[in-house]
Amino acid sequence: MVELVRDIRLIRILQWRSMVQNFSIMGAIFLAGGLYRLSEDDWTFSRLTAIYLPIGIALLAAALRLLVRGPIIYVDKDGVTENDV
């Protein structure tokens, strides 16, 4: 279902939430894939493991950074946002 919103602050909050969810899910998938490859190769570091693990860790770190930072909402001093012009 498409939700039409006029307020730029709500749009930015929804974008932030979807970025956190996407980074978390993709990071967990890559991390699980890397750990699976590591266990299947008798705990020796293979080429796929070297690719999957850092990508998974980086995506989870990006999700955590976004979660801590929160959504960036720019509002001028007079209360005017980009959408009010």
Summing up helix and strand content along with how strands pair, one would put the structural category as: mainly alpha
Q: Please give the radius of gyration in angstroms.
A: 19 Å
Overall average pLDDT: 84
| Total beta strand runs | 0
Query: What is the CA–CA distance across the termini?
Result: 28 Å
Low-confidence stretches: none
The major sheet is characterized as: none
Shape: elongated
Helical content class:
55-70%
Q: N-to-C SSE series?
A: HH
- Distinct helical segment count: 2
What portion of residues belong to β-strands? under 5%
Secondary structure elements and pairings:
Layout: H1 8-40, H2 47-69
Helix pairs in contact: 1-2
Which labels suit this protein?
85 residues; mainly alpha; 66% helix
Report on this structure.
- By secondary structure, the chain is mainly alpha-helical.
- Helices cover 66% and strands 0% of the residues.
- It has two helices and no strands.
- The two termini are 28 Å apart.
Write a compact overview of the structure shown:
This protein is 66% helix and 0% strand. The protein has helices at residues 8-40, 47-69. The model has no long low-confidence stretch (mean pLDDT 84).
